Amino acid sequence: MFSPGDSYANAWPWLRRAIAGFGLFTSLLNACGTLWILALMLLISTDVVGRAFFKRPVSGVPEMVSLSIVGIVFLQLASTLRAKRMTRSDMLLAVLWKRAPRSALLLDAAFQLAGALTVFVIFRASYPRFITAWQRHEFVGAVGHFTAPTWPIKLILMVGSGALAMQFLLDGIIGVLAALWTAGGGKPGRGKDPVDVGP
Question: Which phi-psi region, left, alpha or beta, contains residue 137 (left: φ > 0; alpha: ψ -120 to 50)?
Answer without folding.
Answer: left
